[in-house]
Amino acid sequence: MKTLIVYAHPEPKSLNGALKDLAVSTLESAGHEVRVSDLYAMNWKAVVDASDYGPYASSPLRVARDSGRAFDAGALTADVRAEQEKLLWADMIIFQFPLWWYTMPAILKGWVDRVFTYHFAYGVGEHSDTKYGERFGEGTLAGRRALLSVTVGGPQSHYSARGINGPIDDLLFPIHHGILYYPGIEVLPPFVLHGTDRLTDEDYPDIAKAWTQRLLTLESTTPIAFRPQNFGDYEIPSLRLKEGLEPKGRTGFALHVRD
Questions:
Q1: Which one of 76, 178, 203, 219 is CB 3.0 to 4.6 Å from 174, fit for a cystine?
Q2: CA 190 to chain centre
Q3: Could you tell me the pTM of the whole model?
Q4: How far apart are the first and last CA of the chain?
């Protein structure tokens, strides 16, 4: 298995750094190939602007169209092209990051904004009476798997169904479904560590054991059963879930997950 780890934490000696290092050593010891994109170490440029698209940047800038034109021409900046090549190389993508303000760090969102360009991660496939492009289960990155490994400062009760922050699955849904599943990646259930602000060195062996177990079972783990877009569950072109497909009482994000 070829694994890309996209790592977003500014402190190499952090828990996130330790989890990243353990993932590399565990997977390599098991015979897998591993590449790491350490965004802070790379001084990753986190904002989209006209310089990303060179001569294919219009005025006024139209990010979707211009990114697609630059991608088609092979004219995206070298750093973006390198990350796209890593994604195409990988069978598995692990995102290692802390949950900051209910989402990923800005540098990681900037990686998505710049790397997931038009015609690479979206804007592909036919639009017809039966298809609305190749996305949500289809797309350029279909055949790959992804896992979020996330550290959360607050206790698990804060991120439960009745917790003040809302269920962790809801907070991660925009990443799981809207960023990863959209271009066709199968998404594994996340590895989430709660209460990390209060962890001590004595807690780490148990964490390392649990993380190692997850890493060694990546290939056999069942992905989240998101509903594919073009295979009968949704009306086209409205993309509304067809009436009667949801279990009784189910609403919100959970509508888009099959039992």
A1: 178
A2: 10
A3: 0.95
A4: 28
